[in-house]
Amino acid sequence: MFEKIELDKHMPKAEYKKAKKTFESQIGKLQRKLKEENIPIIIVFEGWDAAGKGSLINQLILPMDPRGFKVHTIDEPRGDELRRPHLWRFWTSIPKRGRLAVFDRSWYHRTFEGIANGKMNRAKSGEACEEICDFERQLTDDGYVIIKLFIHISRKEQKKRFEKLESKESTSWRVTEKDWLQNEKYDQYLKAVEETIRETDNQYAPWTVIEGTNRRFAAAKMYWAVLKALEERLLKAEKEKCEKDSHEEADVYTMWDMNASILKSVDLSVSLEKNEYKKRLEKNQKRIGELGFEIYRRKIPVVIAYEGWDAAGKGGNIKRLTEKLDPRGYEVIPVSAPNEYEMGHHYLWRFWKEMPKTGHIAIFDRSWYGRVLVERVEGLCSNEEWKRAFKEINEMEKHLANFGTVIRKFWLEIDKDEQLRRFEKRQNDPLKAWKITEDDWRNRDKWEAYSEAVDEMLFRTSTTYAPWTIIESVDKYYARIKVLDEVIKSIESRL
Amino acid sequence: MFEKIELDKHMPKAEYKKAKKTFESQIGKLQRKLKEENIPIIIVFEGWDAAGKGSLINQLILPMDPRGFKVHTIDEPRGDELRRPHLWRFWTSIPKRGRLAVFDRSWYHRTFEGIANGKMNRAKSGEACEEICDFERQLTDDGYVIIKLFIHISRKEQKKRFEKLESKESTSWRVTEKDWLQNEKYDQYLKAVEETIRETDNQYAPWTVIEGTNRRFAAAKMYWAVLKALEERLLKAEKEKCEKDSHEEADVYTMWDMNASILKSVDLSVSLEKNEYKKRLEKNQKRIGELGFEIYRRKIPVVIAYEGWDAAGKGGNIKRLTEKLDPRGYEVIPVSAPNEYEMGHHYLWRFWKEMPKTGHIAIFDRSWYGRVLVERVEGLCSNEEWKRAFKEINEMEKHLANFGTVIRKFWLEIDKDEQLRRFEKRQNDPLKAWKITEDDWRNRDKWEAYSEAVDEMLFRTSTTYAPWTIIESVDKYYARIKVLDEVIKSIESRL
After folding, report:
1. Given CA atoms B10, B16, B19, B23 in this order, what sign does their dihedral have?
2. pTM of the model
3. Looking at the complex, does the CB of residue B96 fall below 8 Å from at least one CB of chain A?
4. Which of B97, B240, B346 is opposite residue A138, by nearest beta carbon?
């Protein structure tokens, strides 16, 4: 999902000034409170060379009480460090309760590098990630806060920055051969980062990716991420002491709109000509029909999940997917709000029940992702619950994949204007007016909150075994063919 | 550690009657309260064929409200179950909130069998255990209680029971060829059970092994395990609603002494003759000296942890271990109560700091196990904290082992009478009187509580990568030679 992140986000000066002011007025207060509560804090900065980690760290600590923190700069391990388990140097530098430690690079550095340059094979990197997860869970269980930031820039931007540094005598020494090597092997490095982040993105210590092109935006997002985590930790302490109600939530959550990024970079202008559409539809449907028999014969189960905006065209899309499939081999499962009996069980229970048997295709029209979309945005579950759900969902999909299930997930994307056009068109059509309800108009009002939720969902639950694909759906022809293409591709590559 | 469990524990009729009465009066009340709180309960019965699962289940449910529970008997998967992921049939049978499900065999059955008969290789069984852990964590995070009981009998006892069943016409059909196969391959099966239990023994769903030889004892221990888990869950619910103080603990904890089992089976009468001791000491010390140089050359780090009763002879034992080692290659780390600065960190921090570098030996005189011994018994940490510690400690030792560290842990065992003799002897010896403090006498009063803690520690933290060895220490000669033997064996097998 990293490739989908919109890196060129900017922040106007005035807005940034406001963000900075909020941060500065909050951070001192929070630092004091956390000290009173004896809560230790760890902030990890990882990211590309020349992404701006150093200056972000400066901006972070400037308004803080200098007696309360320590900055650790992590280079290659040296001397005794090499003669002890990798985590030893980090264990020995964790902060005392009530203090804050900032890590400029951290325990992740070795894994990023190791995977990127091939020194770590799958088993070794898996072991390293597991150790990191244990380490972070042990600390957070003990009351520590761990904030993990990855500062992200593009290959082009990195190159530009290196060249700029090299062009001045005073800064040219800062660019080393190793830096250029990273730029050369950018794609490999990115893959290593994605893999590591996916394996270590846990509720107790989640990652935040900071779009680093614009320095103001990057600083503001860092402020946001740090305040959010600290406020939440304080709230938890207050709840534990029964000083706060268990349903109260941290303020920062609704204060800034910082997350949405992936959806903004989607190019919705793509389209298909009608003739071309018809031709490809026929060809694809024929192929999917054949593949339906093939997976039946080979006993492969397939799960396809559709999510998307209201009126994005899920129904029509599903229709084109199934039209030429043998009806004995697939099932479409429409998902709406759970009934009382379903609510009496774990939220995944009703989806587990519907999972296809071998050789069958289950198509979910909306899915278990409701937990991190509508239930999150409408407050139908607690903060705690939807945050936990990312991992739970990844696990469920992993269990299905372990069994041999092919899993694909499609997000049908349209913009707000297009949705309005469709709503109005439906309302004016007596045959389709029933499709538009009060709920639809209400959800529309929360477009921004939903965007943020979708963004986080795409980022945290796109995995190699169950990837998300964003389907540009303003042009329905294009959308339908793209889904068919993707499904065909997945099944073929399994066969 | 299974081989160390004392299986022949009996319970006199009168005592059993009392336990049964307590259980019956408690369980109905608890069941009602749990229903009110909408808490779902899952109780898993696993164990040897003919271990008595069926009759235990009967005794469990008899005093319960029959409208509140359902018993699931798990046979080999059939039909559609075979065509879906293994956990599917269990997901679809989890109870609704406020209800109770009893599983006669469960999701563990496949793994026990699979490992025992070689159908599951290491990767497959690891994956299966991981899925089970995910499953159980997802449920308990959602408020479910999962109680897992393994009913344990010896091979001999199983054979006796089979023969008895076969001897009567009315019951002979109950013994199948498959049952006899299990008896034949008892050791293989036991290894599979041990491995699976070790991988799935988590704080959120811990295992209880029930010594099944004596049916009264088995029933009483089942009552104890069930009441304990349910009471703790209710207490948690009350704490969450801020109705109870966060330090209160469930009553059952101190009500019955059920756990202690492993220590009781240790034969303390073993001894060594003085001449034999001298001969073997010289030989062993020479060898350990050589091995010290060898691990230095091969850059292998070694961790040895000593725990044991006061006056069990740790000091003298360590002395014999180190006497002929090059002092530049080892360090003895005496561990006492943490100071204020150490208390300001995660409890493992001070031990991580002392972990040896490659080629060196660290000998801990008492260790991180204080968390689950003195801190548990004396209430120096919360219930929550010491329960969490089993997993944390296993993880730390795993991380060390991943790095290549050889880890051995010794429990120096003496009985209460022997301790008294030694205390008195020390007190009468002006040179040694300082060794005996008020604390020692106080700890002695809590012998039973400590036994229980030691027992659980040995059971939950004896792993392949960091095994515990019980050192029979009434005869000091024997104890010293046994430690030396064990250390030599471990290092040699690593080289």
Report:
1. positive
2. 0.90
3. yes
4. B346
